[in-house]
Amino acid sequence: MQTIAFSEIFPLFQSASPETLEWLMSIAVEHEYPADRAVLMEDAWGNAVYFIQSGWVKVRRHSGEDFVTLAILGKGDFFGEMAILDESPRSTDVVALSSVKLLSISAQRFIQTLFKDSQLHHRMLQLMVRRLRLTNFRFQLRHQPPAIKLANTLVSLAETYGQKSSQSIEIFNIPLKDLADVADITLDETTKIMEKLDSKQWIRIDPGNQTINLVNMRQLSHLAGRI
User: Fold this and answer.
1) Which of 92, 133, 187, 197 gives the lowest tally of CB atoms within 10 Å of its CB?
2) pTM for this structure?
3) Which CATH topology does 3-139 take?
4) Can you give the pLDDT at residue 89?
5) 227 to each of 112, 143, 157, 222, 223, how far by Cα in Å?
6) Residue 206 — very low, low, confident or very high, per pLDDT cuts 50/70/90?
7) CB count, 10 Å around CB of 23?
8) For the chain, what are the domain ranges?
9) Tens digit of pLDDT for each residue in 158-187?
């Protein structure tokens, strides 16, 4: 992979120097996981940062005898950074939703690289603050109707990870339980709202290709209160 393509896939590295990119590419380790395979386990000590080259994963935590999905991540994003920065066991699991290709960089080498490249260090802080703002925004939505919460979740996933075409934005066909958890609504509410959005032709679910096509982003954004 060329350094330009590497930086295009991963927004974190867009401001890194060419020397940093070449170094990271030389030390990155490739991994492939099938759907439903655990990539990282809770309570494991952080020894690497992982970057999603393709596919989708979910971040989840234990809640009693069950799991709650906290976030959905797609191509270009990363995870595992918290455990290496505060040198503590991981507090969440990461599970592949689809077949996924990852790159990992060891904790020690990644931290060394952050110290050497100030632009990369700054970009890392920017993206972590962005995640914090997204968490705060989701908290502000806690009293909103379920349809608004779910619309915000779909729009956010489309804006961050969606593949654009002339007629729609395509995202992975995320299981309804995971969508419900991330949107902070019930599974029954999620099922009914998705059926309603499909009937209005704002979205088109394609189980065969495992995709959700957001056909009418303007209406979805309006429902989410973003325009």
Assistant:
1) 133
2) 0.89
3) Jelly Rolls (2.60.120)
4) 58
5) 42, 19, 17, 5, 8
6) very high
7) 18
8) 3-139, 143-223
9) 999 999 988 899 999 999 999 999 999 999
